[in-house]
């Protein structure tokens, strides 16, 4: 078969809804794009454990602590599933983790911000996991088998995370005026990072066209963002909360119009300039060093040899 015939067969399989599996022929660009995408996604899961993890010792009740610990463990488990899915494409987990730790590879913009109060834990669970589930439910229909299957499982757990976050918000909003104000303040601070979570506008997106051509990304960044806004803006308003965007409104067709965020901030954050970026990477590096003996033990190498 010529390269052209292989490509045509590959694209025909995708068009008829087949999943591409690790041993199948695939264009180099498809492989590279999937490694990039899944690697960044796995990085986001493991870095996403940090802002919430810092609140485990301060959770207001024992039950809240248990639920938060379970959620943080889920996130780390998602990273494990995703690094495994990326490994099926030929890049080792060690190489991916090292690129994360050296700042060479990206992770989600939203995990670069401080978690200032307990209300932040509610907003992250409800709205950031809410955004993630919209993105991941769509990507779970994508063409690469191992990634799609990992996402199906991840989405089931995200559905619990949203409830955990929403329950925190509802409890705080039924509390004192100060607790209500804490929720509003957290929403104000997280709103713009959440709007940016779905990536740049379609006209500025570098990879969407390639990912759509090969059935990896069923909807564009702007379509996903719009889906999130249509679902969550009415719920936010129903609770009596306001959004820090005076121009945000929903038109008769249900489309949400909003102020364009400052994309210069987004690019600075995703390129290592986020308010918590350096600290988060430093924590991750430390935990990687401290976990070296576990990796050695699991690999059957002498634990005492750890530097
Ligand atoms: N945080 C960090 N980087 C982001 C980002 C975000 N929220 N959104 C986009 N970017 C980066 C892209 O990775 C890309 O950088 P690169 O060329 O160095 O890889 C650049 O901005 C341009 O974006 P775009 O061309 O639109 O990338 P994309 O087509 O891959 O779309 C996502 C971006 C996030 C929508 C897509 O990667 C995705 O769906 N990823 C899987 C889910 C995921 O990672 N979720 C995050 C945590 S739950």
Question: Could you walk me through the main structural features you see in this protein, from its secondary elements to its overall organization?
Answer:
The protein is an all-alpha fold and 307 residues long. The protein has one domain (3-105, 113-267): Ferritin (Up-down Bundle), CATH 1.20.1260. Helix content is 65%, strand content 1%. It contains 12 helices and 2 strands. It has helices at 3-15, 28-53, 62-87, 93-101, 118-139, 145-173, 177-196, 208-213, 221-238, 263-273, 277-290, 292-298; strands spanning 249-250, 256-257. The chain has a two-stranded antiparallel ribbon. Helix 2 packs antiparallel against helix 3. It is globular, with a radius of gyration of 20 Å. The mean pLDDT is 96. The structure holds coenzyme A (COA). Residues 36-37, 40-41, 44, 106, 108-109, 132, 135, 139, 196-200, 205-208, 211, 221, 270 line the site of coenzyme A. Coenzyme A (COA) is lined by residues 36-37, 40-41, 44, 106, 108-109, 132, 135, 139, 196-200, 205-208, 211, 221, 270.
List keywords for this structure.
307 residues; mainly alpha; Ferritin; 2 strands; binds coenzyme A
Structurally, the number of domains stands at 1
Helix content: 55-70%
Task: List the secondary-structure elements in sequence, H or E.
Answer: HHHHHHHHHEEHHH
CATH topology name, in short, is: Ferritin
* Broad structural category: mainly alpha
Distance between the termini: 51 Å
Q: Which spans have pLDDT < 50 for at least 5 consecutive residues? A: none
Trace the largest sheet across and list its strands: 1-2
CATH class call: Mainly Alpha
What would you report as the Rg, rounded to the nearest angstrom? 20 Å
Round the mean pLDDT to the nearest integer and report it: 96
Q: Strand tally, please? A: 2
């Amino acid at each position: 078969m010529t390269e052209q015939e292989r490509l045509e067969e590959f694209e025909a399989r995708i068009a008829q809804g087949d999943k591409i599996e690790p041993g199948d022929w695939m264009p180099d660009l498809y492989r590279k794009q999937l490694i990039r995408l899944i690697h960044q996604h796995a990085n986001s899961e493991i870095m996403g454990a940090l802002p919430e993890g810092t609140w485990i010792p301060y959770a207001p009740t024992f039950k809240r602590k248990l639920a938060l610990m379970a959620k943080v463990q889920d996130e780390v488990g998602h990273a494990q599933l995703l690094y495994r899915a990326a490994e099926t494409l030929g890049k080792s987990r060690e190489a991916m983790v090292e690129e994360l730790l050296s700042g060479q590879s990206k992770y989600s913009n939203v995990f670069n911000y401080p978690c200032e109060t307990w209300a932040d834990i509610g907003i992250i669970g409800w709205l950031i996991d809410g955004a993630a589930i919209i993105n991941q439910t769509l990507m779970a229909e994508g063409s690469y088998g191992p990634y799609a299957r990992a996402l199906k499982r991840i989405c089931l757990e995200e559905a619990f995370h949203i409830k955990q976050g929403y329950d925190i918000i509802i409890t705080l909003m039924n509390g004192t005026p100060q607790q209500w104000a804490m929720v509003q303040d957290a929403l104000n601070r997280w709103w713009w990072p959440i709007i940016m979570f779905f990536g740049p506008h379609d006209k500025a997106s570098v990879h969407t066209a390639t990912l759509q051509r090969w059935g990896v990304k069923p909807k564009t960044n702007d379509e996903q963002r719009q889906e999130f806004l249509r679902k969550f803006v009415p719920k936010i308003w129903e609770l009596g909360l306001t959004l820090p965007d005076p121009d945000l409104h929903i038109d008769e067709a249900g489309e949400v119009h909003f102020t364009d965020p400052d994309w210069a901030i987004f690019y600075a954050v995703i390129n290592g300039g986020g308010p918590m970026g350096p600290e988060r990477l430093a924590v991750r590096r430390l935990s990687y060093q401290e976990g070296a003996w576990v990796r050695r033990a699991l690999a059957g190498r002498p634990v005492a040899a750890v530097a």
